[in-house]
Structure formats: structure tokens, C-alpha cells
Amino acid sequence: MAAPLFARLHPSRRLWPGRWLAVAWLLTLLAGALPGCTPSAPPPRYRIGFSQCTNGDAWRQAMLAGMKKELSFYPEVSFRIKDAKYNSALQEQQIKEFLREGIDLLIVSANEAEPVTPIVEEVYNRGIPVVILDRRTTSKLYTAYVGGNNVEVGQQAGYYAAGLLRQRGRVLEVRGAPGSSPAVDRHRGFAQALAAYPGLRLVAEVNSNWERPSVLERLPQVLRQHPDVDLIFAHNDRLALGAYQVCKQLGLERRVKIIGVDGLPGVRGGIQLVQDGVITATLLYSPGGEEAVRTAMKILRKQPFAKENILSTMVIDSTNALTMKLQTEQLGAQQQDIQRQQELLRAQRATYSSQQNVLYVLAAALLGAAVLGSLAWRAFRVNRRINRQLEGQNQEILAQRNQIMDLAEQARVATEAKLRFFTNFSHELRTPLTLILGPVEELLTNGQDLSAAQRHDLTLVRRNTHRLLQLVNQLMDFRKIDVGKMPVRAAQGNLVAFVRDIMDVFERPARQRGITLRFLPAEPVISVWFDVNIVDKVFFNLLSNAFKFTPDRGQITVSIQRVPTDKTVRVSVEDTGPGIAEQDQAHIFEWFYQGHQSAKGSGMGLALAQGLTRLHQGQLTFSSQPGQGSTFVVTLPEELPAALTTTAPAAPTPTAFALDEDLGAPRPALLVEEAAPAPAVTSSESLVLVIEDNPDVSAFLQQKLRPHFQVSAALDGENGLRLAAEAIPDLIVCDVMLPGISGLEVVRQLKQDWRTSHIPVVMLTARNAPEQQVEGVQQGADLYLTKPFNPTFLLESLRTLLANRDRQREHFRRELSVDTATVAPQRVDQKFLADLTAIVEANLSRAELSVEDVARSLGISRVQLYRKVKAVLGTGVTDFIQGIRLTKARQLLLDEELTIAEVAYQLGFSSPSYFSTSFKARYQVSPSEFRALHTTAG
């Protein structure tokens, strides 16, 4: 039938049956060869329903964006969303609608746990897999759970708050919606963490509906009731932003620290809030959209999956906010590349589909079918190659994401190790600096016979030692800023005069190099609250930097002016140097960064200046044009929060920096405070015990002290304690860093042992942080000196401590001279005297009472008792016993019923005559005269 029909359509051309069979065979072969013409089994399609409690906040939008991003890899999935808008009844109704419409899997994020649990259990019992996302239900009938551990989030917030407040302070909690599982779990974890720190107290709680307006409405009244709150923990970053706005309204934004939860990227996300300084930290709480879809696809494809998929959390603060932001931006850029490639793939697939339809229509045309078949075959190859590329890129992106997370963790660990290394290395440098700077200072001070060349060389050694000490101090400041342990103690002062004093140091090197140094204050007096130690380092670094890069006969201009609208003061340092290259401008405030144009300096000055300025609630900015110089601007607030201020006047403190050699003469580094010489002259009989593990430092101390004292030494704390108990020295010089028992522990044990509690202790250490000095004084140290130290100052300090001990000894003697011989046991030395007095009073009637008897009662040797009494009272034990008896005699003589002989025997005197002689020698009257005088007066 085919041949006659073809003949009728083409009457002018007759095809014989063989020709028609050949054409039919060719069309069949072509149809079989064309791609897509052979039907293949289509991939299974899945229907997933997502019941969301709300899509109205940024965190939920991030969750939804993550789902859509992951779903782009599964075109066979039909994904439907229903928004309950925080309505549990509406959410239950929407899940029922999913059941009626027919779904293969349900993803649900419950608005409230209990109301939604029954319908979720019904879905599960029907055999439909259920993935619980973020908010749990009260039942265990579900297929898988994806979300963070809210209890762990609360605990992490509590532990971070404890570290931030140093385990003491008052905390306020802004909770999420009552009854929601995240709010309940985060509160429980936060309360558990705070329970481990008795110094932290949760003073108030504020409920919210997870949105910022509820905080703006309810928090002000609570903060007015608790104005001394130190930290606010908000259950998400939106609540944290609201808490910051309330604190700013009440003037508390600089004192109160705020911790949020979510850690989302973006302009208004938690990471940006941390980077902008709006909140102190945020805890990463991943939305989990991608993981939920991946888990759902494993379930639908019958692949292995975990029932509990707990997303990890971490604290994001100023130390890692920038890293997190860069990582999220990189992942976003990679996702955009994936989307563009997927759009190209869809376009290719559309092209392929249209070509396939044309081939079906023109299959009867042999020539056209052949041409279109070739095009379709080529398109198929391109499509397959693109698919392979996309799969490879997807795997690469996943690997890169994991690698970025690993690198971030490695960077954090490496940074912490580097900081510990810098701190320990800085401490170690101070010991050799002590052995260099001490002898050099003494030679320059007392070396009368030095030649000019020798004095020049020693001055050069001292200047470079000061310069090395400057670098050590900068490293220590770097560490203190990084861990937040550099306190601000601001006092009100004239900033104009303060900056002028700093500029005076640069006058001489400016004249030597022909540099014009201009100072342009807008007003003669500008009163500002500032910490002289911090601000001095900031401006000294900026001026040093300007001098390094300003050529000879250049110009440096420093100007100061108020900005009344912002209540700030602006100080600018402008130079005429080569400027900053464009490729360096983004990095000049990074630690240890050195620009491409010059390798001058250590790369710490500008980074330290910026860190100190931010610590002072200020801002350091710059502008620069290559070839036209640079201008650095420091903006400081006129006033600071009360927590950062002190009532002490702003004293002009010498700077801790020294000028580099190429800038001129060095500025003296502050080693020790000047002390007036003690008026008392110390006898060479005084014994000083030196406890120092470094043999060179120990030998140096012994050499300096032996001309003035008797000296013994110990190389560790254990031997030092033993020598102190045996020899009872007059004074102890002890290092803090000792092998075995630390110096702080040595001081504590010395002050708790009544045998050695009276001995003054001077601590020498390379640890110069204020909190470390406070720790040493709290343990009982009488003086705390940091290395390197001035030997003359150390010697005068020892003499002053011994003179103070002589005055204390006289005080104890006066206490024992009053009518009541017993001393109240307030301190360790007073308790020793009280115990000694009690033993003597209990044995007053024993004429044979000896020093050995008293020492045996106290549990010590006769020599230790003698040295202790001699050190505390300046007298012997026998004289002390005699004094107690005579003091008691004054009381007994007032009792007229006792004869003088009875009083003498009752107090252990061998005879009445010996009693009378002793009494008269002490009080210049005989016992009978004393009784007659006082009974007559009575």
C-alpha cells in the first residue's frame, strides 16, 4: 500500500518497490541513530512538601535560599511551600492539604511543638517520610531531624559570656517566643553554663516574639530597673540589634556587651553586626536548608542517611568575623557561577528539545532529517560534556567548601599558637635584656673613668637595648589587645598640651634633617577624657611613621580640632612623603604587613595604633595619594563611659617607645619609677635570699647586693622555701617564673607560714601586664618589679622595705607594752605573737620556763624561734618572757589581797627581791611604790 500511495503523490516519478524499501530502511536507520528518538526510562519524579512556620525573617529566607540552591541539583523534584505565618492551627491545616494533594516526603519546621505533633505523627504513620527541620516536635515518630543543638548554642553563649566578663558580672537574657523549642532549649543551655560560674548572675529575662519591635517595646523598662547589666544574651541577631538600639537610647551601648544567635551573612546579618561593632559576638546557627534537602533526597532514593543530623555551631566575634564574611562571599560567588552554568544548561536543553521536535515533524524528508539529525547529535555531545563539567564542578565546590572550613580552623589554631609564641618569646627576651641593660645603666651612671669613645659605645648599646625593649612591649601590647586584657583608665586632660609634649621629642631629629614640624591646634586648650599611656603610643607611632617616610627638608603637620556635631576631637598627622601605593592601602593596618615600596619597621606600628585607638573608643583612618604624601586622622570621643574613666588626674607619663636611630636621639624608655632614697641606712648584717632560676640573673643580683647585704641564693622555689624557713632572712627577692613551684606560690606559702610571714618579698618578672602585677600583690608580694630593672632602684627599694619592717617591729613592741598583753590575731605575724603570748601566759608560774620549752610548744626549733622573735620584735625570747611577766605584774599588784611576794612567785620569779629589782629596772618604781601610787589614785 505504501508504494501506490507514494506514486499518487508524485505522478511524474514512479518508484519501484526496491527503491521504496531502501528509503524506508534509511529512514528507520536514521530514526534509530538520532539521539532522543529511542525512548529511555525517565528519572523518577518526587513531590516534596515543606510546611514552614514563617518565611518573614532573614534567617528563614536564608533557609529557603539554601533549599532552592540544593534543589537546583535535582530537577526531577517538585517542591511546594506553605507558610503558616506563626499560626499553629494554620500549619496543621496546611499539612492536611499536603496529604490530600499527595506528597512523597514532608519537611516541617514547627511553629509550636505540641500543637503540630499529632498531625506530624499521622503523616509518619501513613508511611510518608517526615524530616523535622530546626524546631523539634514532642514525639520521636519522624524519619530524620536536621537542625542545630539549641542547648549547645545556649551553653556556648554562656561559656563565651563567662570568658568575656572574666566570670563575674550581671547578665540579661532576651528570649524567643514562649513555648517554642529553640527558646526553651537555648535558655536551658545558657542557664546550665552560667551555673558553673558563681560570679555570673542572670538578673532579668525578657520574652519576645523573635522580632526586633518586641525588644524595643519591652527591654527599656527592664534595663532601667537593672542599669548595671554587663551583658545581654539575645536568642537571635534581630533581637540583639534591638537590644543594641535600646542600649544606645539609654547611653549603655559602650558598656553593655551583646551576644546574638544566627551568624547570617549579608548587610544586616549577624556577621556584619559583629564586624561593625554593633554586637560583641554571634553564634553560628545554620539554617540547614541544604542539609534538609540532601537528607530528603537520600531518603527518597533509598540511600543510607542519619536520623539525627546536628549542625555544628561556633562563636563569631571580631577575631573571625572577617574570615567568615570572606568565606560566605566566596561561596556566594561560586553559587552564582553554578546558577549561570545551570541556566546555560537549561538553554541547551531547550534547544535540544526544539530540535528534537523539528526532527519528528521532518522525519519524512530524508535530506532535512539527516542535517537536523547531525545537529541534534552534536548538541547531545555538548549537553553531555556540560553535564560532566557541572558534576565535576559541583564536586569541586563541595570539596572547596570543606577545605575552606578546614583552613579556617587551621588558621584559628595557628593564630592562637602564634600569639602564645609571641607572648612567651617576649617574656624570654626580658631576662637577657636585664643582664644587658642593668650593667650598662650602672656603667653610664657610676663610670667616672670612661673615655668618650667608651661612653659613646655604651650609649649606643643602651639605645639599641631600649629599641629591642620597644619591640618586646609592642608584641606584648599586640597580645593584650588581641585577648582583650589591655584596660583603659582615662582621665580628663588637655589634649593639645599632651600632643605638644610628644612632638617636642621629634624637634631635634627634625632640625637635623631639615624637616619642618608644624603644630596647628584650633584652640589652646581642648579638654578630653583619654588614657595617657594608650594615646601616647598612638601618636608616637604615627609621628614615627611620618618621620620614616618624609624626605629631608620635607614637612610634617599636626592639627587638632573639635567636631562639635559628633562630640569628638580630630587629630591629623600629615606628611609630604611618597604616599602609600594603591596595592598596599588595603593592608597597612594588618599586623606585620610591610608595603612593597619600603621594608622599614616591623610592620606593627600602624596595626598597634589602630588597635589602641579602637580600644579607646576612637577611629583611625587615612588618605593618601602616591607621590603626594599621606594623612592619618585619629578621632577620639570627648567623653568615655564611666567604666573606662578614673578620678585620678592625667599625669604626663613618659612614652614607652624609643625613636629609631635614623630619627635622632632615642627617647628614654620607662624602666622603673623614680623613688626617693630611703632615709634609713641598712646594716650589712641583713640577710637577703635570692630565688632565681636563671644563673646569670642570679649571679648579677648577688654581685649587686653583696656590697650591702649578706646574700644567699636558691635556683628553684622548693629550695627557696627551705632556705627561708631555716635561715629566716631579712628580705627575699624572688622571680615569678620558676621551675616546679612558681614564684606566686612561693610568696603565698611564705606569707601563710608564721615563721616567714614577716619577711618582705620583692618579685622580679618579665610579666608586666597590670593584671599579672595585681595577682602578685594579691599573693602578698611587697614590691613588684618588671625586667629589665634598674639595679639602683632595686637596692633603694630593699633598703626602704627593711626600714618599713623596723617601724613595724616598733609597732608590735608598743602593742605588747599596753596593759593587756594579748594581741588580736588579725594577721599571720600578729597570730604568731598571740600564740607565743598565750603559751608564756599559761606558764607564768613556772620559774624554770625556758626558751626550749616555748619553742617545743610552738613546734619549731630554738634557733627558728629566736630569729622569728628577733625579726618581728627586735628582742630576744628571754626578754620577751620577762616583759610578759612584768606586764602581768602591773595587773596583779592592783589586787591588794595579794602580797608582793605572792605576786612574784605567781609570775615565776625565783625570789621577791629579784622581782623587785626587775620591776624597778623596767618601770623606774618599786612594786610597793607602784601599788601605793595606784591604790591611792583609785
Describe, in plain words, how this protein is organized in 3D:
The protein has 31 helices and 24 strands. Strands 2-1-3-4-5-11 form a six-stranded parallel β-sheet, with helices on both faces. It starts with a helix and ends with a helix. α13 crosses α14 and α26 (851-858) packs across α27 (862-873). Among the domains are: 152-278, 3-Layer(aba) Sandwich (Rossmann fold); 325-411; 481-663, Histidine kinase-like ATPase, C-terminal domain (Heat Shock Protein 90), CATH 3.30.565; 687-806, Rossmann fold; 816-937, Arc Repressor Mutant, subunit A, CATH 1.10.10. The chain has 938 residues and is an alpha/beta fold.
Defining key terms:
938 residues, alpha/beta, Heat Shock Protein 90, six-stranded parallel sheet, six-stranded mixed sheet
Amino- and carboxy-terminal Cα gap: 159 Å
Query: How much beta, percentage-wise?
Result: 5-15%
Structural class: alpha/beta
In total, the number of strands is: 24
CATH architecture of the domain at 481-663: 2-Layer Sandwich
The largest sheet, given as strand count, sense and whether it forms a barrel, is:
6 strands, parallel
Helix content: 40-55%
CATH topology of the domain at 481-663: Heat Shock Protein 90
Inertia-based shape:
elongated
How big is the Rg?
A: 42 Å
Q: Largest sheet, order of strands side by side?
A: 2-1-3-4-5-11
Look at the structure and give the CATH class of the domain at 481-663.
Answer: Alpha Beta
Number of helices: 31
Mean pLDDT: 79
Query: For the record, what is the CATH homologous superfamily label of the domain at 481-663?
Result: Histidine kinase-like ATPase, C-terminal domain
Uncertain parts: 1-21, 33-38, 650-658, 660-683, 817-826
Enzyme class: transferase
GO molecular function: ATP binding; DNA-binding transcription factor activity; phosphorelay sensor kinase activity; sequence-specific DNA binding
Transmembrane segments: 358-380
Protein name: histidine kinase
